[in-house]
Specification:
With 866 residues, the protein is an all-alpha fold. Helices cover 71% and strands 1% of the residues. The protein contains 34 helices and two strands. A two-stranded parallel sheet has the order 1-2. It starts with a helix and ends with a helix.
Length: 866
């Protein structure tokens, strides 16, 4: 073909153009998965197009929470470093707040007046003790023994030296948000920069190592870099694009490095310019990580076999976790002091040098030198990395031993298995666990590292765990939850390439998945038992006392193995081409959130609360697997899915979250000088609002058809007035039943004692204020929020599965379980009546009226008796 027919030849794209395309693609993938409201419209022309799933709300919410948490933790770290620096600069005086210093001067004047026999306040000692008590509380000394000891020491200093023994602290006693007052700049700059520089180096090392360790394509045959070589540009340009992509699209750097350096620069005096400094520092460390990554991934694939690459990557995963764990551990004052001492033994130039961004916080010439040094080093290392990578790729991208590696064992006769009763599915999972280095490290070695680092960071933690079985049980369950998050939640995603084979087996696919979940339950249970045994082995009494806690933990581990596997199946996109994105991150976050709620069952002293949470967790596991069975026929169909609806799992998640969040808020508000009645009402309303608004938003985002009507948020079928009267009548029937139940309770001593122990209105708490709080809770707040949770959501989910009458009984049973044991019988009757009238009216107004009437009758009878 002649040149005239071909037309003018286009020049090859420039390096910056290729880099822009690659970075834009990475950012587009990230923003596409974070989409909240934008959905892919159904196509009539392309029915086989895979449906677009949005990681959506949970991913975005957790990202914001991670950034906020990074900012808060960095602020606390800077504040602790500043407090320590100020104390070292004032070893001859005790640092106190301005208010405490005022009271010290006032008490000194009182003492002088007493000596001159002048009239002065004779209670100065008690007033000063209260001031010192507030000071100790502001210092964060929560232990009663240490607090009393510290107060006595302050009084001794006052009696010996008077105001000369104290000095007003420049650094505030507390810090939550970044402030220039939280930076101590009066002494040597190294007092602040050395410990913060150590933390910055640790975070940078974690990002650099993790950038290579997290590359899941590195040890696989279908390597994404091979596609890049179709670009008509030199290898160095491709490597530079890869490097810049790592610098920009690095979640770990944005969640750790960016908030840390932004807070440090802000507190150091840069104010809003500190955010720009944090952004530049994040890009700089991302460039270092990208440089190491392109050299490592090209060199490893060229000079090592894929099997050895997998082994090295597994080891690198462990190494990458160590600096990150140590950096997080600096939140502990003991570990921060240890790192500070280690940093001071090194020459200052090792930590505060022009190649580390921490030098910018020093200001002046040091800041200018740090900016120039970082910029020059970034240019040198990126140029060297791309040059070295291009040299290694001079003959093309090849592997050390070719793509086909490994060997097959000879086939065994049918029916012969060395696994015996373990089963074929469990045997396959065990073989995968042993062969896959990354999974092996995450399951077995990561818990050991996490536990070991916790013990090293906080030596007193070992004694606490050894003598408190609940703490040991919580630690054992937490490590097991991490194992389940990396194992059970992703067990289905591993099978996606061979998913079609599962449909050829003479066994239902959901049964195969159940066996996989059971296997991970056994693995996590073994880890929980070993962890608990190691933690409590130093105290035989703790082992015996902790057996009930261990049993509770094991039951929870098994239940959450099925919950994690169910969420993993529901959150896996079989048509996702990238293995690391097959499981939606939102499902993993949801699992860790639900697993965190189980801590309430471990720590609550109420046996009934433990039982209630176990029942809710078991029902949640059952409901999730019911949902898995609904989705199983559609796993290989990219264009079809079950119609969105309110399921039993949704109702149980809402009920469980409300139950646990309410208990946590009661404990929190109870320690903030709220009265018991006010704390209970505020906790109830707060938990109800959070759970209600979140569930409504998620249901709306899931595009459930006719959402308001489905949840009963409409007027009754036969009119508002008739619906309210129907509810009042049903509530009156339930109230009379409750009144009769109270009469029966009065005739039995066991029931009467149980009632007296669980009633929130005790003889010592019968003031008018408490009664009003209690009435507002039971007659107004409880009907509003509980009917939405247990009738609109939970009953609606049960109704779709087992019909209206079965749903009424099931929802009433769950409703009764979350109430105190003495109230199970009448509350079950109330729940059943509310479900019946809700089914007939399809409006929440009617069961709310039923609930209000019932509570008014029961509470009125109780108050009349008192």
């Amino acid at each position: 073909m002649s040149a005239a027919l071909r037309g003018p030849e286009r020049p090859p794209p420039s390096t910056l153009r290729v880099a822009g395309l690659v970075i834009g693609l990475a950012v587009r993938r990230l923003t596409s998965r974070m989409s909240i409201t934008r959905r892919k419209k159904p196509s009539t022309a392309r029915r086989a197009t895979a449906r677009k799933r949005s990681a959506g709300v949970l991913f975005l919410v957790f990202s914001i929470l991670f950034l906020f948490n990074g900012m808060v933790q960095s602020t606390l770290l800077v504040h602790r470093v500043a407090v320590a620096a100020e104390r070292r600069a004032n070893l001859q005086s005790e640092l106190v707040t301005r208010d405490t210093m005022v009271w010290v001067d006032w008490a000194h004047r009182c003492v002088q007046a007493e000596r001159r026999h002048e009239h002065e306040d004779a209670n100065w000692r008690e007033t000063l003790l209260r001031a010192f008590t507030r000071q100790v509380r502001d210092d964060g000394i929560g232990d009663d023994i240490n607090a009393v000891r510290r107060i006595s020491e302050l009084m001794r200093i006052f009696e010996e030296r008077g105001p000369a023994g104290f000095r007003e602290a420049r650094v505030p006693s507390r810090a939550v948000f970044p402030s220039q007052r939280g930076w101590y700049g009066e002494g040597d700059a190294g007092e602040m920069l050395i410990p913060l520089g150590v933390v910055g180096i640790l975070l940078a090392a974690a990002v650099v190592l993790n950038s290579t360790a997290s590359n899941q394509d590195l040890a696989k045959v279908d390597f994404s870099l091979e596609w890049w070589f179709t670009f008509p540009v030199p290898a160095r340009s491709l490597l530079l694009a890869r490097l810049l992509e790592t610098a920009v699209a690095n979640p770990l750097a944005w969640f750790t490095v960016f908030p840390f350096f932004s807070v440090v620069f802000w507190c150091a005096g840069y104010s809003w310019r500190g955010v720009a400094g944090g952004l530049a520092s994040t890009i700089y460390i991302g460039l270092l990580a990208g440089s190491v990554r392109i050299v490592a991934e090209t060199g490893l694939r060229r000079f090592f076999s894929l099997r050895n690459v997998a082994r090295l990557q597994a080891a690198l995963t462990l190494v990458a976790a160590i600096p990150l764990v140590i950096a997080i551990a600096t939140m502990s004052p003991q570990w921060l002091t240890t790192l500070d001492r280690l940093g001071r033994r090194l020459p200052t130039w090792v930590i505060v040098n022009p190649l580390m961004p921490i030098g910018i916080a020093a200001g002046g010439k040091e800041a200018v030198m740090a900016v120039l040094g970082c910029a020059l080093f970034a240019l040198v290392i990126t140029g060297s990395a791309t040059t070295l990578g291009g040299w290694m790729l001079r003959d093309g991208l090849t592997t050390g031993a070719g793509p086909h590696q490994g060997h097959r064992q000879p086939a065994r006769p049918v029916g012969e298995s060395r696994l015996g009763a373990l089963g074929v599915v469990a045997g396959k999972e065990l073989r995968f666990l042993v062969r896959d280095r990354r999974t092996f490290v995450q399951v077995f070695l990561a818990p050991v590292i996490i536990l070991g680092m916790q013990m090293i960071m906080n030596p007193r933690l070992w004694r606490v765990l050894a003598t408190h079985p609940r703490h040991a049980g919580a630690m054992a369950f937490g490590l097991s939850a991490i194992v389940l998050a990396t194992g059970a939640c992703t067990t289905f995603a591993v099978e996606v390439p061979a998913l079609w084979m599962y449909f050829t087996f003479p066994l239902a696919i959901d049964e195969v998945l159940v066996r996989k979940a059971a296997f991970w339950g056994v693995v996590a249970s073994v880890i929980a038992v070993v962890t608990f045994g190691v933690l409590t082995s130093a105290d035989a009494t703790a082992v015996l006392n902790g057996i009930p806690t261990l049993v509770l933990v094991l039951v929870g581990v098994v239940l959450y193995a099925f919950i994690g596997a169910g969420l993993g199946v529901l959150g896996t996109d079989a048509f996702e081409t990238e293995p690391r994105h097959r499981v939606r991150g939102s499902m993993v976050y949801l699992f860790m959130t639900l697993a965190g709620l189980f801590a309430h069952a471990i720590y609550t002293p109420s046996a009934w609360a433990k039982f209630a949470q176990l029942v809710l967790s078991a029902l949640l596991a059952y409901a999730l697997w019911q949902k898995v069975r609904d989705h199983a026929p559609f796993l290989l169909d990219p264009s079809e899915a079950p119609a969105p609806s309110v399921a039993v799992a949704d109702g149980l998640i809402v009920a469980l979250a409300f139950f646990v969040l309410q208990g946590l808020l009661v404990l929190t508000l109870g320690g903030l000088d709220f009265s018991p009645g006010a704390a209970l009402l505020l906790a109830f309303v707060g938990a109800g609002l959070v759970v209600g608004v979140a569930s409504l938003f998620i249901f709306w985002q899931s595009r459930i058809p006719h959402l308001w009507a489905t949840l009963g948020l409409r007027t009754p079928r036969r009119g508002l007035l008739r619906g309210v009267l129907t509810g009042v009548g049903a509530g009156a029937v339930g109230g009379l039943c409750g009144r009769g139940y109270l009469m029966v309770v009065d005739r039995f001593d066991v029931l009467r004692r149980l009632r007296d122990d669980t009633l929130s209105l005790s003889h010592s708490d019968t003031g008018a204020g408490t009664i009003l709080w209690f009435i507002a809770l039971t007659v107004v707040a409880a009907p509003l929020f509980e009917e939405f949770i247990f009738r609109a959501v939970l009953f609606g989910g049960f109704r779709r599965s087992i019909g209206p009458w079965g749903a009424a009984l099931a929802s009433a049973l769950v409703f009764a379980v979350v109430h105190p044991p003495i109230a199970v019988v009448p509350v079950f009757v109330l729940g059943f009546l509310a479900a019946v009238v809700y089914e007939r009216s399809r409006s929440l107004v009617v069961p709310i009226a039923t609930h209000m009437t019932y509570n008014a009758i029961v509470v009125g009878a109780a108050l009349w008796r008192s």
